[in-house]
Design brief:
It is built from 8 helices and 8 strands; from the N terminus they run αββββαββαααβαβαα. The strands form 3 sheets. A 4-stranded mixed beta sheet has the order 3-6-5-7, with helices on one face. Strands 1-2 form a two-stranded parallel sheet. The longest helix has 14 residues. Helix content is 26%, strand content 13%. It is globular. By secondary structure, it is an alpha/beta fold.
């Protein structure tokens, strides 16, 4: 899913290339977008469905748009869908993302030292579902938008709790989707001379927060006093 100007068509094209290298057999690669310019011909593009919610002046729907992937009829698409954020980097086979049992799978959001107790929230950079099977996720949001936006910080928090309450939420094996920020950057002070590398069992590296793939490739981190060396492996993996 691509909207706005933060990510150009090169992110879509690189993501397609990575999926083609790391997924066996045939597949349909679909991009929901407000701008198809520059996107390679192998990618099937459709408009982002309207959330059909009332927004206050200046209020943005942002990542809540992801909930439209749960439309009852999403352009006639059928079967298993694997949603991938544009800024992930695939480094291993993703075949098992389609075969691992479970009604709905998502990344178990990464632990923070200041958060205690059981964490239900998923990270929606990578999730798998049967198209049309969870239309109630979107219908409930449309019916109770104001309440849910006040109760939940973002779309992934709402999505995770809603499906957890139905007993449908499962997580990917922790090793499959490591965070670049938390699991690839060496601990201080070795981050000043060691290259950030993905863990051995990684399949999809998640870039969230203050660094994205092109910045990491150059050794840039958009946070003061947090140094990283160039992650040179990205040059080969991302594209």
């Amino acid at each position: 899913m691509k909207w706005g100007t933060k990510y150009g068509p090169d992110y879509v094209n690189r993501l397609y290339a990575m999926v083609r290298r790391h997924l066996s057999g045939d597949f349909r690669f679909v991009c929901l977008t407000d701008d198809t310019q520059g996107i390679r011909s192998e990618v099937e593009c459709h408009p982002i469905p309207d959330l059909n919610i009332q927004l206050a002046p200046g209020q943005r729907d942002g990542a809540w748009k992801k909930l439209t992937t749960f439309e009852q009829d999403l352009y006639g698409l059928q079967g298993q869908a694997l949603f991938l954020d544009l800024d992930v980097v695939i480094v291993g086979s993703i075949d098992e993302f389609f075969t691992l049992p479970g009604e709905f799978r998502i990344i178990h959001d990464y632990p923070r030292f200041w958060r205690f107790g059981k964490r239900i929230v998923g990270n929606s950079s990578v999730y798998r579902f049967t198209l049309g099977a969870h239309a109630d996720v979107l219908a409930n949001f449309r019916a109770n938008t104001e309440q849910l936006r006040a109760e939940y910080r973002n779309e992934q928090e709402y999505l995770s709790h809603f499906l957890h309450q139905q007993g449908k939420l499962d997580y990917w094996p922790a090793a499959w989707c490591p965070s670049f920020k938390y699991y690839c950057i060496p601990a201080w002070p070795s981050n000043y001379w060691k290259e950030p590398l993905p863990p051995a069992d990684a399949r999809i590296v998640i870039f969230h927060g203050e660094v994205n793939p092109p910045d990491a490739l150059q050794g840039l981190r958009n946070k003061r006093f947090h140094h990283i060396q160039p992650a040179r492996w990205i040059e080969k993996a991302w594209g």
